[in-house]
Amino acid sequence: MGKFCEEVRSLSLEIMGAITESLGLGRDYLSSRMDKNGMQVMAVNCYPPCPDPTTALGLPPHSDYSCITILLQNLTGLEIFHLSAHGGSGRWVLVPEVKGVLKVHIGDHVEVLSNGLYKSVIHKATLNEEKTRISLASLHSLGMDDKMSVPYQLVNNENPARYRESSFNDFLAFLVKNDISQGERFIDTLRIKD
After folding, report:
1. Does the entry feature the keyword Iron, yes or no (predicted)?
2. C-beta of residue 188 within 8 angstroms of C-beta of residue 66
3. Is 41 a residue whose pLDDT tops 80?
């Protein structure tokens, strides 16, 4: 497991470098904040079989607060919310399973970092009728008290900051007071209203 964690962490830094480069910030914009001082949280989820998966949910709809999440799973069961489908009302889409493929989710931190250019992925876990589903999620973010904010390079008179800065500790404080299983999302509290 240790080698897997190291390799996935290295992959996360490469992906984040590509993201920051795509924003015109350079590949190393977050490297020291994520490599030396950042966090990696590993979550192993076990979803037992359910005779009627329509009556239960593995994980309720949510977005990850991290910068990115890298997911490995043994069975299908991950669904993402596709907002632009059905005339903008959105719909849930099952992510197909490709054996041995890692899935990468954009998290709330990247939505803030990009000033909304990238959107965090709303997703949920569903159950299987016959088999146990196991997923291994590796979440990568800044340190506990390190605040993610919209970089000044991405802000001007025509494109003001759309999000307030926040840290992982701010997210944990939100969790204590709010029920994400009821659809409350931390990212919504960070949006600056016009």
Report:
1. yes
2. no
3. yes
